[in-house]
């Protein structure tokens, strides 16, 4: 019997790529999402990925499984890539009654927890909303898991928990908690809650994954990052400039202590990141207690290096303007990913060119993301 894995927030950018990896690794994901950061599926069939050969018909989406609601567009396409149905339910992580009902219906062996609000700038404006959704949502999830005897969780954390780096590269022993915004603090608080729970109850196992900067898309070009409104992250913005949706990129500061004066970050291909979650699920099987791993490449690239890499991938000029530094930005941030390689047997396989080529393919095939307009 395939293991059934609950994926919260599984219609988003990272979640949908992880659902695909779960399907391809033989798991049975059950996905919940409240459509806060996802587009509802269209009735029209998606474009075939490859021109069918003579006498063959284009690949069709498998039928939705019984009891599965209208799929988000991202998951409809995941079904098409994987040729396997995805079980989906529209559900808000803060709805405890609905969570209880879900856990009564399925026997989960583990939970992958992505659901939450995630815009740094917005969190500064709406701290209570971020704490309500991210913290009480997670507490409700953990309590429901406990009530139903599910004690294995992979949590989607972030390198923001490290705050301003005291040293580089950042390893898992670097101090945490000096976060500069409520989004980062909420990730840190959830890490602490899960660590305390594992200390108190020895039958719990958790893997906390601290992501660096996921970019790129599945190589089919059918799923990728689709920010609603103006992108908060560098690479979706750069891609939108390349495709003509935005006029120019604002580069926040060119007077940092880096090679070209612009901020340096550790970018990781989304498919590498997703594979890290499969490795984390396997780690839970060892009754590992609470483990923490960085998911990054260990290499930092500056904003201008990223712009040049995207120009190379797209064959288009990307206009940019230097503007003032943005509050809360650090000069450099990149991972030491050695622990994940040692203990999970996981290592990022894709380099910068591949990240940009796959991002560009997604952007070119989907100039307005998942929506049709």
List the total number of helices: 11
Helix/strand/pairing category: alpha/beta
User: What does the average pLDDT come to?
Assistant: 93
Shape: globular
How would a textbook summarize the main sheet?
A: 7 strands, parallel
Low-confidence stretches: 44-59
- The radius of gyration over CA amounts to 20 Å
Q: Provide the succession of SSEs.
A: EHEHEHEHHEHEEHEEEHEEHEEHH
In whole angstroms, the N-to-C terminal distance is: 42 Å
Describe the structure concisely.
The protein is α/β, with parallel strands linked by helices and 373 residues long. It has helices at 13-24, 73-82, 96-105, 120-125, 127-147, 182-200, 234-243, 270-284, 303-314, 338-344, 352-365, and strands at residues 4-8, 28-33, 87-90, 110-113, 152-158, 205-211, 213-215, 249-252, 264-265, 267-269, 290-295, 301-302, 320-323, 332-333. Residues 44-73 are annotated as: Disordered.
